[in-house]
Amino acid sequence: MRIEVKSDILGENNRTAAQMVELFRKKGIFVLNIIGSPGAGKTTLLEKVFKHLDNSLRVAVIEGDLFTEKDAARIKAMGITAIQLNTQGGCHLDAPMIERAWAELTKDRSVPLPELLIIENVGNLVCPAEFNLGEDMKLVILSVAEGADKPLKYPLIFKEAGAVVLSKTDLLPYVDFDYDGAVGDITMLHPGVQIFPLSAKTGEGIEEFCRWLKERAAEKHSIDGSSSHE
Ligand SMILES: Nc1nc2c(ncn2[C@@H]2O[C@H](COP(=O)(O)OP(=O)(O)OP(=O)(O)O)[C@@H](O)[C@H]2O)c(=O)[nH]1
Ligand SMILES: [Mg+2]
Question: Which 3 state secondary structure label does DSSP give 140?
Fold first, then answer.
């Protein structure tokens, strides 16, 4: 009985996610779903990336959090369009929430649509892995402070993710993180997955990550449709 309920929830989620995929395809918008533990450095990475991009890409952000508006406030403070979703204790975002946030983000039709939509999921390495939000790609962030054993302990998200960020590399001298072991485990779980070691504090690896993001957005836009609201 419990299994049926779960499959219904996932079925409804997947139906809405499929509609969102089609909508983002038509608009040529690259959508990235960022997943990582609480404090892995998701919002700080976005702040660093937006500073580096310096308005060279039209970006919008959907922030997921249990109760607060804190992350959206940080992104809005940089002049970037952001919507905060609160799950009221729920451990992940779902596609109907993204559908509502998208409607809110795009209600002013005089504002051009973004070229890149970033969704920061609720801080959690487990539940968000199971819910498709209509994204092009999931990106998992693992900070070196969390330990090199995490890919094998939380394998689903590393299998699902199209790219992996190893964050806070400035802390490597101070924590016991088996860097080569972690990279080996991630590659074993997901052969060929792109891995970005970086530090939002020192800026190491940020340029390469931004270049990759711009390429993904350009690629999606060239394959797909226009940025118009119609
Ligand atoms: N040393 C160091 N600290 C970092 C780095 N990136 C983030 N931090 C710190 O890590 C803490 C958490 O960062 P956030 O960006 O808020 O983490 P988050 O993943 O968005 O957290 P939630 O949204 O709560 O899940 C903050 O104190 C940041 O200053 C980094 O590259 N190096
Ligand atoms: Mg955050």
Answer: strand
Q: pTM for the full model?
A: 0.95
pLDDT in tens, 153-189: 999 999 999 999 999 999 999 999 999 999 999 999 9
Q: pLDDT digit string (tens) for 74-129?
A: 999 999 999 999 999 999 999 999 999 999 999 999 999 999 999 999 999 999 99
Nearest CA, atom 29, ligand 1:
44
How many angstroms does the Cα of residue 136 sit away from the middle of ligand 1? 24
- State the ligand closest to the CA atom of 38: 1
The domains located in the chain, with CATH, are 2-223 (3.40.50.300)
Measuring from atom 21 of ligand 1, which residue has the nearest CA? 39
Burial 205-228 (b: 16+ CB within 10 A, else e): bbeebbeebbebbeebbeeeeeee
Pocket test for ligand 1, best of 33, 44, 75, 171 (most atoms within 8 A of CB): 44
